[in-house]
Write a structure and sequence with these properties.
heterodimer, A: 5-stranded antiparallel β-sheet, B: 5-stranded antiparallel β-sheet, flat
Chain lengths: 662, 472
């Protein structure tokens, strides 16, 4: 297994904290992603480290007993510490506010506090075994105000900070889950709403053992913008399932929770879940490997639930060396391989792995490059990559690879890849367009929902594909030109299929390639069917090809005519071909003959050395002069003296037109 | 001529009546170098039709042609005589390869009117040139045959080819279109065209021995991987010979007895027009016609596979050194058949949409023939159906003759020009030439004057040819 095979890795710069030991308790707050190292109940110091802030917060507090739970409110404004089962202590961390501790007892009599969660910088929820209590903290008054409470028996709870949803386990089997959602309108007190409760189906178990839903088997995470409750259903001997599975319940903002996806693990044992870049990662401790699932990839739909298999073969997380630089240098001098899948690991949503015994907090990451070689089905690979955050360069490299001599894909595969890219590209273009139209219509002020569409990395436009893939591809000498043209046409076909206007540089690439291989007749046919869209640059390019391929002249003129904005160019082309009469007839046909320069036409006529032609052109302009100014003579501003002299020389003075008088 | 005069008066768009059809009197090919001395004259003759003619007469006729050519060469070294008119017949000369002469003579009618001949001369000269092109397509050049097996082989090939081909030569139905030798292109929207491109590229990839592909729909060309001149003659062969031969079983439909004899395939409508008839027959012969292309240059010998599904036909051309097996044919059938069937119905659907969009199908007050020398595109609303045996034109032959005269005028000068003719039968005939394009319009407006006719033609150009640069 080469290094390039690992597709999961621990982040390079973990958060490091003091290892847990009898005098040092370690807590993790999922909302702020902070690790609290509490030494001797806080008396000898509390060190708080978050993933982003490299400067830890350190403070001391009096040792008033064992700390059960410790968390900052959002923005680190207020610290809450739970030391007893009835009360939570608070301490302001806001400048100018008293730092004296204040305490809140839970309202429900005889209730025990299971824990608490901050839902904003000043709002907190107590979860007791008899319900939940929602408070607003008033730091300047050093007191709390109960906003709302709800009574029900609670076995355990779970909080998802991203979606501000608390899940309470109720009933004897612990498998009925009651979600609460917290909303925070700006500058107002938050609201708490109860969502419909739902039941997790427990696997059948032998009669002797009482089944129950364990907190350990439940996780909450946002996947593709939707909140899911993930249930790790262990393999049961009574059922004929081949292994454990993860059941995904979709928890919508409104409406009932619904079982949507089942991830087949095909193995048994101890598992842990993470969600990284919208992928569900399932770690398996027994084999020390992990698998990933993507619920957007096509699975087997049985009418109500979609079954998914791992996207890729199981792999270990990439081996990790404990770094020696930085604060870690104190503990160790040489890099030490880190024990992966250790039993001391604790996993938090969405992507956090903590080793309390080693004092590290990592973010789990997905590496996309190795996946390219692990997923042979290019269509599926594209579906997978297009959903990833950092996908652009990887996708472009996949495109280059499939067009390379050694790894060349078949045309249908190439077509599929282009179609998938352009599908995404078109979605973005459409969103952009409707946004632009809405802005134009002035809806932006009235509707706060109107947001400029975000251009993700999955949007690969024509210039990306041209710059990174196609321009290098057509330069490859060893490529059969048939293949090169087929690929270019396939890309153009795909763009057309999604009704995306093709940029002229792609057309130029096609023309360049065809011309290089003397395939003028092919070029002619493409132009005949307007596959290469009309444009002035293209028409000029065609004109330049006339010496190699005479029909290019006709094609170019046709194109200029269709553009209907290129009449001057048409006249120039005709004059350059000494088709003076044709040029004049054309400009007259479109009614532009009153504004043309007589000198230009007379020059061209003179050059043909055809005296009769010169006579005709000269007479035409005399008549124009007569019509416009009442006299056939040219004005000095027209600079036609030379031509008048020439006319006289050839045909004599008497041939000049006489001014007509009525 | 009495019949013709009567015909001119009867009904506006009368179909062509059977006149005395011009018959082929003789057709021969000779090379003066092969029998330069007296007594060896017979050696010059490579092919002579009709073969029954007495030897001395053959020699005499060949000698006469040789003499005429030699004689006229003194006046015009680069362009010796192309045709010779006599009271009894008319002869056409063509030297397609150095020293190889092809001569065709047909019976002449007593010439009374001075005007009729120009068109026919050009038409028959074109027919003669076409004879050679067709021979070359299936046999390669005369020179190549000489190299391969000497005069003997050349004579065999000529005999084998022309014996059959001359029977299909129907001189009476030749007209302006034979001069053009154009290609009718199928009008198609960009997207469908790109789909076809994609299909062809994929087929060439999966059937990797395919060197060139051509795609036709409704007997009209959509794509040619061959160069223009080769496609021109292949197109002629396909549309006047191969496709008409296969039209009957197609018209018969799926359930008819004729259809039932063909290999039944329920997945698609694809079938071979050349090659094996029944793929299920293990003894089926996979013999395809050979064609020769790029004879001036790379000189390629190819197998011609023509495969058709509904109205869509694809020609796959593979190198002659590769022998397509029955397995290959089955593979082709299984890959191409289903996709071509889908594509054919796509094209049909798209075509109908476009037709509906282009508006009412009202019979217009004019008929036209268009030809572009640059891409050989030809379009005719004069011809209803062109087969080798009958040219169903919808206008009177006299009008066709006028078209021919205008064409001759156009040939004489390089400049763009326009000719308007008022025909005796109340028709207006307009010929326009603009940058290597020719347009002939026949208007049926009895009382129109010159200005109105000019306006009418302008309108026609604006509606039918708004995509191209056509000087008014």
């Amino acid at each position: 297994m080469g290094e390039e095979d690992y597709y999961l890795e621990l982040c390079e710069r973990p958060v490091q904290f003091e290892k847990a030991n009898p005098v040092n308790c370690v807590f993790f707050d999922e909302a702020n992603k902070q690790v609290f190292a509490v030494r001797s109940g806080g008396a000898t110091g509390v060190v708080v480290k978050g993933p982003d802030d490299r400067n830890p917060i350190s403070f001391r507090m009096d040792d008033k007993g064992e700390v059960k739970c410790i968390k900052f409110s959002l923005e680190n404004k207020i610290l809450a510490v739970q030391r007893t089962s009835k009360t939570v202590d608070f301490c302001n961390f806001i400048p100018d506010n008293s730092q004296l501790e204040y305490t809140q007892e839970c309202k429900t009599k005889n209730a025990n506090i299971l824990g608490f969660c901050w839902t904003s910088s000043t709002e907190i929820v107590f979860i007791t075994d008899q319900g939940i209590e929602f408070y607003q903290v008033l730091p300047e008054k050093r007191s709390l105000k109960l906003l709302k409470s709800h009574n029900l028996n609670v076995n355990w709870y779970m909080y998802c900070p991203e979606s501000a949803v608390i899940l309470l386990s109720t009933t004897v089997l612990e498998n009925v889950l009651q979600p609460f959602h917290f909303r925070f309108p700006p500058k107002q007190a938050g609201t708490m709403s109860k969502l419909p409760k739902f039941e997790i189906e427990l696997p059948a178990a032998p009669k002797s053992t009482k089944p129950s839903l364990s907190e350990r088997d439940i996780a909450m995470a946002t996947i593709y913008g939707q909140l899911y409750v993930l249930f790790l259903r262990h393999h049961s001997r009574t059922s004929n399932s081949t292994g454990a599975e993860v059941v995904l319940y979709h928890l919508p903002r409104e409406g009932a929770c619904k079982k949507m996806h089942i991830l087949k693990l095909n193995r048994t044992g101890k598992f842990a879940l993470n969600v990284v870049d919208n992928l569900v990662v399932v770690h398996h401790q027994d084999t020390e490997t992990s698998v990933i699932f993507d619920i957007k990839l096509r699975g087997e739909f049985d009418g109500s639930v979609t079954f998914h298999h791992p996207v890729l073969p199981a792999r270990s997380i990439q081996p990790y060396q404990i770094p020696i630089t930085g604060p870690a240098a104190v503990t160790s001098q040489s890099p030490v391989p880190c024990k992966l899948y250790s039993s001391s690991w604790i996993v938090f949503q969405p992507d956090i792995i903590i080793s309390a015994s080693q004092g590290y907090l990592w973010n789990l990451q997905v590496k996309l490059e190795p996946i390219v070689n692990l997923l042979p089905d290019k269509g599926r690979l594209m579906d997978f990559l297009l959903q990833r955050k950092e996908c652009k360069m990887v996708i472009l490299s996949v495109c280059s690879q499939m067009l390379s001599e050694s790894d060349r894909a078949s045309l249908p595969v190439i077509a599929t890849v282009f179609d998938k890219l352009n599908h995404e590209y078109k979605k973005y273009l459409d969103a952009e367009q409707s946004y632009a139209m809405a802005v134009e219509a002035g809806q932006s002020r009235s509707s706060p929902l109107l947001k400029r569409p975000v251009r993700t990395q999955a949007v690969l436009d024509q210039s990306d594909v041209y710059t990174h893939v196609l321009s290098a591809f057509v330069e490859k000498k060893e490529m059969p030109h048939k293949f090169v043209i087929a690929v270019l046409m396939e890309y153009i076909r795909s763009l057309n299929q999604f009704q995306i206007a093709v940029q002229h540089y792609l057309h130029e690439l096609v023309i360049k390639t065809l011309v290089q291989h003397n395939l003028f007749y092919m070029l002619h046919q493409f132009l005949q069917y307007h596959v290469l869209s009309d444009s002035k640059p293209l028409a000029c390019l065609l004109l330049s090809l006339e010496s190699f391929y005479p029909p290019a002249h006709q094609l170019s003129l046709d194109m200029l005519k269709r553009l209907s904005t290129a009449n001057d160019e048409i006249v120039e082309v005709l004059l350059s071909k000494h088709q003076v009469l044709a040029a004049l007839r054309f400009i007259r046909g479109i009614g532009g003959h009153d504004n043309i320069s007589a000198r230009k036409f007379l020059d061209a006529a003179k050059q043909t050395e055809d005296n009769m032609l010169f006579y005709t052109i000269f007479r035409f302009f005399e008549q124009r002069n007569q019509r416009l100014r009442g006299s056939p003579n040219f004005t000095p501003g027209e600079h036609c003296e030379e031509h008048v002299a020439f006319f006289k020389q050839i045909f004599g003075d008497q041939a000049l037109m006489r001014p007509t008088t009525f | 001529m009495a019949a013709a005069a009567a015909g001119a008066g009867s009904g506006p768009w009368a179909a062509q009546e059977k006149q005395f059809p011009p018959a082929l009197l003789s057709f021969f090919i000779y090379n003066p170098r092969f029998g330069p001395r007296e007594g060896q004259e017979e050696n010059k003759i490579l092919f002579y039709h009709p073969n029954e003619v007495e030897k001395n007469e053959k020699i005499r006729n060949v000698g006469l042609c040789e003499a005429i050519v030699q004689f006229t060469r003194t006046f015009s070294p680069s362009k010796p005589a192309k045709s010779l008119h006599t009271q009894k017949n008319r002869q056409f000369f063509n030297e397609p390869e150095e020293n190889f002469w092809m001569v065709m003579s047909k019976d002449g009618k007593p010439v009374i009117e001075y005007q009729e001949e120009e068109l026919l001369d050009k038409v028959y000269s074109s027919v003669l040139r076409q004879c050679y092109s067709m021979y070359k397509l299936f046999n390669g050049t005369f020179l190549k045959a000489m190299e391969d097996g000497g005069v003997k082989l050349l004579k065999e090939r000529l005999e084998k080819f022309f014996h059959r081909y001359l029977q299909t030569l129907h001189l009476q139905s030749c007209d302006l279109l034979d001069i053009f030798g154009g290609i009718s292109f199928f009008p198609l929207d960009k997207m469908t065209y790109l789909k076809i491109q994609s299909f062809i590229n994929r087929m060439e990839e999966s059937l990797n021995i395919v060197k060139y592909t051509a795609f036709l729909y409704n007997d009209q060309l959509i794509w040619s991987g061959l160069e223009q001149d080769d496609m021109r003659i292949l197109y002629k062969y396909l549309t006047t010979s191969l496709f008409p031969r296969h039209i009957e079983p197609e018209l018969a439909g799926r359930d008819s007895p004729i259809r039932a004899e063909m290999p039944g395939n329920l997945q698609h409508y694809g079938r071979f027009l050349t090659g094996p008839l029944n793929l299920n027959d293990p003894d089926a012969k996979c013999r395809f016609p050979k064609i020769f292309v790029n004879t001036d240059d790379t000189y390629e010998e190819l197998h011609l596979i023509v495969y058709k599904a509904m109205s869509a036909a694809v020609c796959f051309m593979i190198d002659a050194s590769v022998h397509p097996t029955l397995d290959f044919c089955r593979r082709l059938d299984s890959i191409v058949g289903p996709q071509l069937t889908v594509l054919a119905s796509d094209i049909c659907e798209q075509f109908n949409i476009n037709k509906r969009m282009s508006g009412s199908e009202k019979e217009p007050q004019f008929k036209f023939i268009y030809f572009n020398h640059m891409n050989l595109a030809e379009k005719s609303t004069v011809h209803m159906r062109k087969t080798p045996s009958v040219s169903l034109t919808s206008v009177h032959p006299d009008l066709m003759k006028i078209l021919g005269d205008i064409n001759s005028d156009f040939t004489r000068v390089d400049e763009d020009e326009e000719i308007i003719v008022k025909a005796m039968s109340d028709y207006w005939v307009v010929g326009k030439k603009s940058d290597r394009r020719e347009l002939y319009v026949i208007l049926n407006q009895k009382n129109a004057n010159l200005i109105e006719v000019n306006e009418e033609v302008k309108k026609l150009c604006a509606t039918q040819f708004n995509n191209i640069f056509f000087l008014d």
